[in-house]
Amino acid sequence: MKKNISLKKCIEILYTLSIFMIALYIRIWYIQNVPTNPVFDFKTYQEIATNIFLHLGHTLKGVPIAFQGMGYPTALGMVYKLVGSSDIMIAKKFNVFLSMMTLIFIYLILIRITKRKFVIYTTYTITAFLPNYIAYNNVVGTEVFFTFLFAAMILLQVYDFDNRIKYPILGIFIGAAALTKPFFMAYPVVVAFIAWLKNKKIKKAGLLFITTFIFMALVISPWTYRNYKKFGRIIPISYNSGYVLYINNNSYNTTGAWMPLEEVKAPAKVKKEVRSILEKKNVKIAHEIEPIIKKQAKAWIVNNPVEFFKLGCLRMKQTFFSGAWDLDAWASNDTRRIDEEYKKWDKDEQTFYARNKNFSRAIKDILLYILNSFGLIYMIINSKFIITALFKKDYKIKYEQSIPAVNTAFFTAVHFVYEGQTRYNFPLLFLFAMSMVIIVDKVMKTEHTN
């Protein structure tokens, strides 16, 4: 009996390591063989990180900036300093390291919250080979870095050890995540709520909230002080929340997504103020705009609740049901060489290439639609149990239910209000894979029982 158990354990370890090494190889191959150029936000991250490497501080075009969270470009700039170069390949290798650490965290989370081998190893395998989790290693963006922090936070939540150490560390990670994605300043509430659902101890949940909030604030406060000195007002992390809220919630927005700031419908006075500022500054460094347009955006939402709801639904579609177009747009967008070769091919060769490209895109789209659908369905299914737990004193929710469901609800609420983009689902994909496999496992067991 002991030999059988030992053999089974050895097979599990061998499988886990094999998947890990294959996933590592694919990521390294991808960043070395698929050319891409940083554009838009990704280009900005690279420039800021390079400036940090060159001892020019957190600046853009020689000007202090806090348009986006400082977490990722600062971390990348420190890596550049450590290595002694700001070559973009270093950023990609940094992504690979973080991606593989995230995979380890996910495995540790899985073995902690469930004993079902099918759930553990199927979720682990899907996550290891997700096209998004491979392709974004090629992007100088927040996705891989933030998902690493997100997985680390969940790992800290599910493992029990001395709370005098656990709670402060969790608060520090939340602070780092908030400096990367400012909406994570609200995450201590999520952490405390998940803990309360698990044990129904209000004092323990309250202590967790207070401790994580304090340590998060301590992590954020130096940056807030820096912003006060640079910009003359209290800006906890970034000054783009008003900008994002404004361009995504107005009478002329028809998609729920980004639109040019100048095209937003607003009172003549507001348009004049914004225009006068933008004549002197780029929008990314024009911090004075936020107080003006944020007030306008909030007023529009209050006065147009039905239209706001429509735009929110459009943002949900943009985030969860727009396919995988972003992988081509951001992770493999340097197509000059293949475009030149394409012109030389005959019609049959061009057709073969185009068909294969479209087939690859279709498979990625289908996979993403399936994962996102299961993730949202799992959230909806478990919302019933979570609501029940709110009213029943001894009704507790396991981590395998609450962590995917509550986190999905949190991200969904944020993107419903602010902005929807395909890449914004990236941190949730491993939880969606977990949700899908749990549902499939339960269905299979139900059929087997019947």
Automatic annotation (TrEMBL):
Give the protein name, as stated in the record: Glycosyltransferase family 39 protein
Which class of enzymes does this protein belong to?
A: transferase
Q: Which UniProt keywords apply?
A: Cell membrane, Glycosyltransferase, Membrane, Transferase, Transmembrane, Transmembrane helix
Name where it's found: Cell membrane
Molecular function per GO: glycosyltransferase activity
Checking InterPro entries in the record gives: LipidA_mod_glycosyltrf_83
Topologically, how does it sit relative to the membrane? Answer: Multi-pass membrane protein
Mark the transmembrane ranges: 12-31, 94-111, 142-159, 171-195, 207-225, 366-391, 424-444
> What EC number(s) has UniProt assigned to this enzyme?
2.4.-.-
What PANTHER family does the record point to? MANNOSYLTRANSFERASE YKCB-RELATED, MEMBRANE PROTEIN
Where is it predominantly found? Answer: membrane
Name the lineage: Bacteria, Bacillati, Bacillota, Clostridia, Eubacteriales
